[in-house]
Design goal:
Layout lengths: L14 H28 L2 H12 L6 H14 L2
């Protein structure tokens, strides 16, 4: 086995650097999971139909607005 000698000017990662890297990766993975889940829900035929009806009736002008309003109504009426 060959022994590798570290570069003399190489910097080692500090505990804080490692913690920050882990937190960044965790956040990215959580965001990706949320995006996948959102896509699965929003691509369901029944949800697409509801969204299309909302837009066709002019209740909302964008998909984003329809989703935001639906969630807001759901939370405020619970």
């Amino acid at each position: 086995m060959n022994k590798q000698v570290p570069e003399p000017n190489a910097e080692l990662l500090s505990v804080d650097d490692i913690h920050q890297d882990v937190m960044t990766l965790t956040t990215a993975l959580e965001q990706r999971h949320a995006e996948r889940k959102s896509y699965q829900i929003l691509s369901r035929p029944d949800i697409r139909n509801l969204r299309d009806r909302i837009l066709a009736r002019g209740i909302c002008t964008t998909e984003e607005e329809a989703i935001e309003r639906a969630l807001t109504i759901l939370i405020t009426q619970s």
